[in-house]
Design goal:
With 245 residues, this protein is of the alpha+beta class. It has helices at residues 13-21, 141-149, 185-198, and strands at 26-31, 36-42, 52-54, 67-69, 77-83, 108-116, 121-127, 132-134, 137-139, 154-163, 169-177, 207-210. Strand 1 and strand 2 form a beta hairpin. The longest helix has 14 residues, at 185-198. It is globular and about 55 Å long.
């Protein structure tokens, strides 16, 4: 069985849990193939936030026999690899062969991309198939979506790569506005500037389309493949720079 794409714990949920239950929360990333959490961290850890967990359950310090690695250098996005005693033996019926199958050396290459910062926190950057490049640099849709939903005017958001008029890929965001806010050119400009200032400027959405709802499956999983730019709306993309640059 294939694991669904992980969803980060909403940043506003943890304070509510603390207030109602009076306890801290352990936020983790797990997958069916190992039957447990691979990464986990308490919400009280210094620097912890939604989509960002310490490598408490992978590598050191972690339970004996469970190891993980994210190929690449610090602050670069790489695909998470895992090995542990509870790792599956293979997919039923021989599905998902190739680079995402259990290898002969006992390591499993997941479909999830992570970035490890200098403090040792793992940042989930989406599934392998979700990422796209802008100007030769990887962009994680989930990272841009988290930035957008941190704005008070946004209820939820989804980001995909879309062609500009020159055939180059740029971020396109679909946004459902929060109660009391209305989509339009003014809010679009405000959200673009907001994302530019919280993420690397090249990651901000060049276009924003306001929608009533995002496509989801029966289990609530976002169906990103159903998102398509409106015909005739592609135009020259702005440069991914701050206004002062």
């Amino acid at each position: 069985m294939r694991s669904p794409a992980p969803r980060a714990c909403p940043s506003g949920l943890i304070p509510r849990i603390r207030a109602v239950l009076g306890t801290e929360v352990t936020v983790g990333y797990g997958l069916t193939e190992i039957f447990q959490f691979a990464l986990a961290g308490r919400s009280s850890d210094p620097g912890a936030r939604a989509g960002r967990v310490r490598q408490a359950a992978v590598g050191s310090p972690g339970p004996p026999g469970r190891r993980g690695r994210r190929p690449g250098r610090v602050d670069e996005i790489g695909t998470l690899e895992l090995t542990c005693g509870s790792l599956f033996a293979g997919y039923w019926g021989g599905g998902a062969t190739g680079e995402h199958e259990l290898r002969g050396d006992g390591w499993f290459t997941t479909r999830d991309r992570f970035m490890v910062d200098r403090a040792g926190f793992y940042h989930h950057c989406g599934r392998v198939d979700d990422l796209f490049k802008v100007g030769g640099k990887w962009v994680s849709p989930t990272e841009v979506e988290r930035a957008l939903t941190a704005h008070e005017a946004v209820w939820e958001a989804a980001v995909i790569g879309a062609d500009d008029e020159e055939g180059l890929i740029k971020p396109l965001a679909f946004v459902v506005t929060n109660v009391g806010h209305e989509g339009g050119p003014e809010l679009e400009a405000e959200l673009k500037d907001y994302v530019k200032n919280v993420l690397a400027p090249y990651k901000y959405p060049r276009w924003i389309e306001f929608v009533d709802a995002l496509p989801r499956g029966p289990g609530g999983k976002m169906l990103r493949y159903k998102l398509r730019p409106a015909r005739g709306k592609r135009r020259r993309a702005e440069t991914g720079t701050l206004p002062s640059e």
